[in-house]
Amino acid sequence: MRLRRIVRAVVSPFALASLACLVLAGWALWTGGLFEGPIARQVRTSSVYAAPGVDLDVPAAEQIIGNRRLIVLFLDQSTSDPAPVCDSLERAADGVLVLALRPRGDGWNRYGCAMFPGGGELMTIEATIGTGIQQFGGDPLSTVKVVAVNYDRLVKTGLLTDGPRTINPYLPRYLIAGAAVSAVVLGSLLLWLTGRRAARAALDRRERLDAATDDRVALSAAASAVAQQIIDLDAGYRAGSRGFRTHYAALAGDYVALLGDLESGDDAEARKRVDRLAARATQLAALR
Predict the structure, then answer these.
(1) Domain residue extents for the chain
(2) Separation between Cα atoms, residue 13 and residue 191, nearest integer Å
(3) I need a labelling partner for 53 at 20 to 30 A (CA). Which of 10, 70, 246, 255 fits?
(4) What is the reported pTM?
């Protein structure tokens, strides 16, 4: 029975909706770059990344690149192998040509990586995108200009498909994740409050029913006591006076009428009638 209740709770519509919201939140956070590094978070909404210490006017470099499907990374000298950096940009730079540059003497150590499918032409693209930048090793902004020209040449030759880059900002995905989590939390809170209110209403109803039952038991006991008084008075009916017999007959008749109204009448009014009958029976006993 306990296992059945657990299974019923797990497969309930609310549980399934909560699971769907949590899955949606996880997807939004994962694809939104929550677990990505600083470079991936930067290039998700920008076409340029400059490591600390690189003297580059980033807004000017972004303006030069424009909406080309191109990202230029200026890494620091501590990055010995740019390949892992490119691998970490698989989601953030999907469909974009990435050129990673690392200072080397008066020039650049370059590493191109295309984040789109292709065959042997990818090697040509990755090798060509950094052509002619070695003489601008001390001028990152001029380097960006040369890279942009190389990109346009690749488009003209047909090696690259022309078209604007699609930016996937992470904020909307975080908002989706927040909305999904909020839906689960608020839904759970609403469900808890509704259950608490229903439980309280059920408890109040139970208390009212118990109180009504207690009142009914007390009323029945009082009516039984009056019946016993009438039975005790019946022994002196024949020997009693005419007035006694008249009052006794009226008392018995009123009691019989009361019994017919006990089940359908008002308990409070019935209690008053029982008390009056008990008082009349006590007074009649004094006349006997």
Answers:
(1) 33-167, 179-287
(2) 12
(3) 70
(4) 0.53
Could you tell me which of 93, 91, 57, 87 has the C-alpha nearest to residue 74? 57
Lowest pLDDT segment from 8-22, 30-44, 65-79, 271-285: 8-22
- Confirm or reject CATH 3.20.20 for domain 33-167, answering yes or no: no
Instruction: List Cα–Cα distances, 140 to 101, 216, 226, 240, in angstroms.
Output: 10, 94, 109, 129
Structure-block tokens of residue 29:
């956070």
Give the separation between CA 5 and CA 97, rounded to whole angstroms: 55
Amino acid in position 141:
L
What CA dihedral angle connects 61, 66, 69 and 70, to 10 degrees?
A: -10
Q: How many CB atoms lie within 10 A of CB 85?
A: 20
Q: What's the chain's Rg over C-alpha atoms?
A: 46
The answer on pLDDT for 17 being more than 80 is no
Q: Quick check: 68 and 47 in contact, CB under 8 A? A: yes
237-254 per-position pLDDT tens digit: 666 667 777 777 777 777
d(Cα 186, Cα 225) in Å, to the nearest integer?
58
The residue length of the chain stands at 288
* Mean of all residue pLDDT scores within the chain: 76
> CA nearest 61: which of 44, 47, 76, 43?
47
Report the C-alpha gap between 42 and 29 in whole angstroms: 16
Which stretches of the chain are assigned E, i.e. beta strand? Answer: 48-50, 70-74, 97-104, 107-114
State both tokens at 261: 């109204």
Q: Which two tokens stand for residue 263?
A: 């089940």
Query: Strand 70-74 and strand 48-50: pairing?
Result: parallel
| DSSP, res 36 | S
- Give the separation between CA 24 and CA 6, rounded to whole angstroms: 24
Is 90 exceeded by the pLDDT of residue 70?
Answer: yes
